Amino acid sequence: MLTLTVSKTILTALLLRRSKSLACTLSRKQQPTNGFWPCGMPRQRVPPWRSYLQRLAAYLPRHRQRVRCCATPRGAWGLMSRKPRISLLVCSPTVFSHMPSLRQGVPVIDSHSHIYTERYAADRAAVLARAVTAGVTQLLQVGCDLEDSRAAVTLSADTPGIYAAIGVHPHEAHSVNASVLGALEMLLQHPKVLAWGEIGLDFYYDHSPRDVQRAAFRAQLQRAIRCNLPVVIHTRDAESATLEILRDHPLPRSGHVHCFTGTPEMAEALLAMGLYIGFTGIVSFPRADNVRQALRVVPLDRLLIETDSPYLAPVPHRGRRNEPAFVVHVAEAIAQVKAVPLDEVLQRSTQNFYRLYGKTAMTWERLVAPHTEDRL
Q1: Which tops the pLDDT comparison, 90 or 341?
Q2: What's the whole-number average pLDDT of the chain?
Q3: Do residues 283 and 337 touch, judged by C-beta distance below 8 A?
Q4: The pLDDT of residue 64 is above 50
Q5: CATH fold for domain 99-357
Q6: Distance of CA 11 to the CA centre of its chain
Q7: Each residue's pLDDT tens digit, 217-274
Q8: Which residues are CB-neighbours of 20 under 8 A, at least 6 positions away?
Q9: Residue 293 or 65, more confident
């Protein structure tokens, strides 16, 4: 027993001594950059014991290919796991090697969010700053009624890299009339308005009667077609009705079926119409197997990534208010399902966004962090 105690003491001393010499070596690769660790987790959320585990893992090179990041909930659980094969916690170079490339200029676009709302009134500038830090280059702010659409256009006018879509959500379909449609069409005069939406059908909540939803959907599709705009489509528990109306209104500029939660068969039908399909943080939820099944049938050249902020924050931020910086986690989940590199998901989704929403001869602005005084 005495021999074992002495051996443990000597081993601990050697580890601590060696860790000092490793500090400089690890600082470049493992220390946070721009407020984020190599795994993409904000510095302030990393457990205090992480640096010790990183140094300890340097002694175990043969295990480095299957370690997890302790900044994530699943990785943190590995610390308490009884299974030795998942108990080593560092940022694995094989799992997180994509993060440095993001900081080298791979464009990231959140193709659908709502940060113009009051939920961001207190810290909108800080939210935008975090998005820039995460590599986000453009945002599309999507209106849900006339008032929201005006707010989205105002935010896009005031902020480089932010663009707007205008329209009435199916929850507010009862508000659609000739006057509202005319006011929405007036907003199209702003050069940063790229699409009409979000529009569609929601038979899950039924906040508006279904016949009213159908009429509002048709009326807005007709306006979008007349104005030669792509559309942003919301559909939930309304598969057959959505497909029927879309077949009756062929879209010359295509559209974006956002936050897709339908069946693989519906995805294939939408793809056959030439539409793009967007996925949110739902794809990272443990029980969302149906969404992952649909994702598998969507090719990369029809895929868009989005947060739908403030809703549906992806793992590892689930349960919090969502924000555009978290779109990288959505892309990570998609890359895992499709077994492709993260950079490929980001590059292809960015190309798709530009192809769908771009206007002739337009120059895309890049999102910039607000000035310090704006964040105070």
Answers
A1: 341
A2: 81
A3: yes
A4: no
A5: TIM Barrel (3.20.20)
A6: 45
A7: 999 999 999 999 999 999 999 999 999 999 999 999 999 999 999 999 999 999 999 9
A8: none
A9: 293
DSSP string, 127-147: HHHHHHHTTEEEEEEE-SSHH
Q: Which two tokens stand for residue 128?
A: 């935008």
The structural domains of the chain, with segments of one domain joined by +, span: 15-96, 99-357
Please give the Cα distance from 321 to 124 (Å, whole number).
Answer: 12
DSSP-derived 3-state class of residue 315? coil
pLDDT tens digit sequence for 127-166: 999 999 999 999 999 999 999 999 999 999 999 999 999 9
User: Are 348 and 112 a contacting pair, CB within 8 Å?
Assistant: no
pTM, whole model, 2 decimals? Answer: 0.74
Burial class (CB in 10 A: 0-12, 13-18, 19+), 211: exposed
Residue 7, Cβ neighbours under 10 Å: how many?
A: 10
Residue 314 token pair: 């992806």
Asked if the peptide bond before residue 198 counts as cis, ω within 30 degrees of 0, the response is: yes
Q: How far apart are CA 361 and CA 56, in angstroms?
A: 54
d(CA 30, CA 1): 37
Packing angle, helices 327-338 and 289-297, rounded to 10: 70
Place of tokens 């308005």: 193
CA 277 to the chain's CA centroid: 13
Burial of residue 176, with CB atoms counted within 10 A of its CB: 0-12 exposed, 13-18 middle, 19 or more buried? buried
d(CA 338, CA 70): 24
d(CA 252, CA 230): 8
Tell me which amino acid residue 153 is: V
Nearest CA among 247, 218, 221 for reference residue 232? 221
357, 140 contact by CB (below 8 A): yes
Query: DSSP assignment of 86-120, as one string?
Result: G--BS--HHHHTHHHHHHTT--EEEEEE-TTSGGG
Both tokens of 143, joined, read 């209106």
| Residue pLDDT, tens place only, 299-335 | 999 999 999 999 999 999 999 999 999 999 999 999 9
Label residue 13 by pLDDT band (50, 70, 90). Answer: low
Residue 243: HSE in the Cβ half-sphere, 13 Å Cα cutoff: 14
Helix (H, G, I), strand (E, B) or coil at 228: coil
